[in-house]
Amino acid sequence: MKAPLKWLGEYVDLTGLDAAEVAARLNVTGTELDRLIHHGVETPETVVVGRVLSAEQHPDADRLRVCQVDIGGEEPSQIVCGAPNVAQGLTVAVATVGTVMPGGMKIKKAKLRGQVSLGMICSARELGIGEEHDGILALNEALPGAEDVAPGTPLTSVLEHADEVLDLEITPNRPDCLGLYGIAREVAAATGAELRPAPWTAAGAPAAVASGTSAPGPGEDADAPDPAGDAIDGFAVEVRTPLCPRFTARLFEGVTVGPSPLWMQARLSAAGMRPINNVVDVTNYVMLVTGQPLHAFDADRVAGGTLVVREAAEGEELETLDGTTRALRAGELVIDDADGPTSLAAVMGGARSEVHEGTTRVLLEVASWDGPTIHRTAQRLSLFSEAASRNAKGLAPEQASWAQALATRLLRETVGATRVGGTIEAGTWDPNVVAPPLTVREARVERLLGAAVSRPRQTELLEALGFVVTDAEPDAPAGAGTLQVIVPAERRADVTREVDLIEEVARLGVVADLEPTLPARRRPSSARLTPRQQARRRAEDALVGRGLQEVVGWSFTDAGAAGRLGLTADDPRAAAVVLQNPLSEDQAVLRPTILVSLLDIARHNRTRGVEGLRIFETGTVFRDAPDPTRPDMPFEHTAIAALVQDDVFAAKGLLEALFSALRIENWSVEATDEVAFLHPGRAAKVLVGSGAEQVQVGLLGEVHPRVAGTWDLPRVATFLVDLDKTLPLAPESRPFRPVGQFPDARFDLAVLVPDDVTAARTVATARKAGGALLEDVAVFDAYRGKGVPEGQVSLALHVRLRAADRTLTDEEIGGTRDKIVAALAEKVGGVLRG
Amino acid sequence: MQERIAELRAAGEAAVAAATTTDQLEELRVQHLGRKAELPNLLRNVSDLPPAERGIVGKAANQARQALQAAIDARVAELAEAELDAKLVADRVDVTLPGKPEPVGGLHLLTRVRRDIEDIFLGLGFDVVEGPETETVHYNFDALNHAANHPARDPGDTFYLAPSPRLSGDIQRLLRTHTSPMQVRTMEEQDPPVAVVVPGRVYRPDSDATHTPQFHQVEGLWIDVDITLADLKGVLLSVARSIFGADRDIRLRPHFFPFTEPSVEIDVSCHLCGGTGRLRSGERCPLCKGTGWIEILGSGMVDPNVLSAVGRPEYDPERVQGFAFGMGIERIAMLRYGLTDLRTLYENDVRLLEQYA
Fold this sequence. Notes:
heterodimer; A: alpha+beta; Phenylalanyl-tRNA Synthetase, Chain B, domain 1; CATH 2.40.50.140; Phenylalanyl-tRNA Synthetase, Chain B, domain 3; 5-stranded antiparallel beta sheet; 20 helices; 24% helix; elongated; B: alpha+beta; BirA Bifunctional Protein, domain 2; 2 domains; 7-stranded mixed beta sheet; 12 helices; 18% strand
């Protein structure tokens, strides 16, 4: 919300406060300054009123004229001007030499095609007023009384054309601050400056107009009922939905559509709105002051003189102001006249009944709407105009009276319109139904904030914001009393409870000086990560310790990712969770596996020349299948995955480190050729436990060369582990195991086994045969080739025996060795090599 | 005979003294004391001598052999020292040459900052909990007191999931826009008092230098019978000092969030300019833009409607109260490490990541 400071100053006395001071106070009381803008000419004092004494054709340029302009000096100033409408006798705005124009251009003494030019005659747009750029601004036409102003007079003394503008961030709970008067009230409460009476009241009226003050006419005081009654001849309004609590209409005749006064155009421009014509400008101006949108119908284009507010039927069509025909949804709000829909209520007017150049009678609608309904419609149609976004907040019905009163005065004063008839009222709103006051317990304020605020101080703070406060028990001791608080209309939606009032007290009177404390009651023992959280950190640290760089990929990927991984449509991993409103096609679904992210990141790094990549990620992956713990939600789990530019054994070594860090010992792998994105001969399922307890927790393998190729990668290997399954299996601690004081006995065996016997099976056979004395057995080499018969593999086993209570004898060692050799021969067809 | 022994000893000792390498000494040992050498043979054949001579000759020969052996040993030790010294001189390397390359591993900057924040809150007595990234409208908005027309619900601000025939229930699903749903989920599970932080990934449809469609937050919640706004300030002051330095101060700036009342944004005094708004050079501080303050998080007293939405008598808003806050991990990372473009965090150029490893 843009609040031009001088305009704001009409409603609150800003004497002695500059824009930065006002912003600083607002900033620490709940209204954040987005930025401070200077609107218009940077040096407004150097723009003066001038009179064109002559305008001669430039000798060397067809489109230029050489003007002699009286700007108050002893001699006229020569100014070269390119505007087609410059002419002798015009009163104009002259940017004198030294003026800094909007955007920073500085006016210098210049020569244009050989002719000296001492300044610039300004167009309205150059002054920051509107977008008209047809020619220079003829003040004698646009500014009443300008012809009588002495040349050389600063333009600011007759027209406030430049201003400091506070661009404020208004939080969604404060639609009252989407009107300048609401901001003025905040400024008054935050700074102690005096708030002037509202411009829609009799007391506030005379000051409300910068030029041509006048006594308020009938219907121009929102606090008084309309003396003209509630009827307009020839017009009727009917509201057929509870979603429009109040609908008011007034009729104005004698309208001549044309430009609005310059002061109004200047203010609208400073507030970021484009001046359009005097009728529309009044509705916008009033909206900016009151926060309440208004809509002007051409009264002669309201068919039958009737307006009906109703909920639309599904699929109904309506042509809006912007010339677009829109299909409506059931429950959206429309306004009909006798010919059908004429307006998309509260969001956008209809083309048919729009005010146009020839309009002479205006029917002014000001209504209150159900916020969420309007919000939904505006959202669906992407029509968040200034009006729609305000109506979407659900404004107070009282605000309609404010807007009608102020608009009535401005239409009279600036358009010369005459009001005919009274104010039509429709809707269910009953002004006599008053909400009961809220109660604030003094003790509650201190209990919540941790700082005591006396009742008189609370009263003072709340009254500054327009709340009406009564001390219910004036004699109650400090800390034990209560206040009864009536909430002003414009705050009714936001302030509904005691705690909301405590917030008002806090933000204005407590927060800035609050003494920090620590909670008195604290837990008796220190907090720790859970065993699972600790295990996750250990797993990550183990990989970092092995020289892997952690990465953080996108949770999003494109719908084609599953296909690039080679997954068929019936693969569970191919069932991606789809976003309804993705930012782009590249981020349309959620990743079904971290591998997608790792491959993307690997490619990104390889194209930048990084070789020997070693990366991992811990993160969430998603699948479009019911989550076991939340059946109505998609399946998601936390996974850890690594990718190395190396072979499957490199990845397996890292996996071993991972399980070691997790203290999980009974894990194993089982070859698989059924995972589409892994090399069919170099892939495995990762399993934990044995027998019926065994669970698959992940995958290991080289990425399928076709898949790697899709990502422009050489051989890369990966493992993917579901941490949600794995972390609960990680023991919190490992019991102490003595290493044994007696020496071990070690020997190696080289054994030929058939190719289809896995190392795991050979080792398991040896282990079983080794019995109690066997401390460890592991394969340290596997060899095929010269000296090994076709179809066989030579496995080199390293065996370590140990007894806890004695040194092993040669007989024991030999006996165990023989048992192992025999078992290998019997169970796996193993033949000892020379 | 004794003369011969003396001769051999003298010759041997002279040769040993003249030897210059341990290899020569080994030769001398073989020559003078080996199996075929004269002196040991004299000793070996001493039994052949007449009994009167045996003792004298044997003793002399033995002494000579021992003396020679000692001389060799001493000389060997002497030469070995010198040879090692010489070898070490010869082995000298240029120690300024680079070390053997080791793979560089490291945690991502976001993990580093997240763990740091977790540890700070553990120290303040908060447990760490995590929650799902796909959420329901109920937990993400309704239970957090967001009005039906609150703009955060708009598709411009929230990623919604497309309806799925595979899932039961006619509900609208979304990617959580904040870690706040875990406020309600935690209170559903745990009795008060509750003090938790919730680190996690969240999503909003924004993309520019300071916004990415996914980012990370740490939610905080402390509920008990007497937790006050002043406590919020005290706890977050501790946190700000832990992160940004012991000299930091914080200020509370009133704001609006649907799920807290009152709501405040927390600014920390700028660590670059010390809160003055000016650098030593007199230039305007680029970090706080001359204000002396940097916004770091949003917070407030948990709205009674949120406590009521838990639906448990233990969380009756007349009985318990407390504060909640949410801070952006990326924001802290930017402030701490001087990052200017958030998107680089998700590009994962390892050369950049390794700078922080």
